[in-house]
Amino acid sequence: MISKEEFTKLHSEISPFIHRTPVLTSALLNKLAETEIFFKCENFQKMGAFKMRGATAAILALSEKERAKGVVTHSSGNFAQAVSLSAKSLGIPAYIVMPSSAPQVKKDAVKTYGGQITECEPNLKAREAAAEKIQKETGAIFLHPSNDLNVIYGQGTAAKELIEDFPGLDMIITPVGGGGLIAGTALAVNFYTENCKTIGAEPFKFDDAYRSLESGRIEFNETNNTIADGLKTNLGDKNFPIIKDKVSEIIRVEEDEIIAAMKFIWERMKIVVEPSSAVAFAAVLREKDKFRGKKVGIIISGGNVDLSNLPF
C-alpha cells in the first residue's frame, strides 16, 4: 500500500495535468441540510469529472515502452473520457470500450478527446471481452476504471485538496460506484486528518457496496435501474479491502431523493452536476440527524449530463 509520502508525491506529479477544482458553499443548502457543507467541485475538472485524476496517475505510472502501445479501458462514460484526454495529453493511443447504452453526450466527448470507441452489449462480461480482444490485437495496457491501485490513488487527490483547503472536516462523503473514488478518499482521509470519517452514498436500487460492507465480501446487483448511471458498476478486489478497513458506512437513497438533491444543486448553486454526483448530497438530506452541526465535505464527482434527458 502507498505511503503518505508517496501519495503526496503522486499528487505533485499529476498536478500539471489536472485542475485544482474549487470548493463551493451555499448558505441556502446549509440551512436546508441543517449543517455546514463544503462541495469539492470535480464537475469543473478537466473532462468534467474526478476520473481525470486516476486516469492520469495510472498512465504516468507506465513505462515509456508500455505507453507507446497505448491504453485500453471499458467505461460507461467518465473514465472513458478521462483516459482519452489523458492519453491525448501524453501523445499515446486510447482504445475505449463503451456499452451501447452509454449516454450519447459521453460517447461524443470521447471522440472529441481522440479515443477510439468500440461499442458492446451493456453488461460487464461483454465489456471485459471486448477490452481483452483489443489488448491482444494492439498490445495496449488495460486500465481498470476503479479497481487499479494507481487509479485509486489518483482519485484520492480530490479529497487531499479538499482537506488542505478546509481542514477540520468531520466527514467526507462520496458517491460509490466501482469504489475507486471512495477508496482513494478513505486513504487521503487516513493520511491527512485525525478524526474525519469517510462515508459513501449509493442508490437503494444499486446498493452492492452497502451489502458488501454488511457481508464482508463483494456483492453484486441483479438490476441496474437507477438514474445514477455513473454508479452502475461493482467493487473490486483492489479497492474493497480499503473500503472495508477505512470507510465508516454507506448510506442508501431513493431515486426521487437523488433527483431532488440534483435539482437543489442546479437551482441554488447554479452549477451542472450529473445524477451520480447528487447521491452524496441526497444522503445528507436523508440522514439530517447524523450530520446536523457537523462540517461535511462532499465530492461532487462530475457534471457530464445528457441535457436532452434531464430528470426534471
Automatic annotation (TrEMBL):
Keyword Lyase: yes
A GO MF label: pyridoxal phosphate binding
Keywords: Lyase, Pyridoxal phosphate
Keyword Protein biosynthesis: no
Gene Ontology terms describing biological process: D-serine biosynthetic process
Family of this protein: Belongs to the serine/threonine dehydratase family.
UniProt protein name: Serine dehydratase
Species whose genome carries this gene: Salegentibacter salinarum
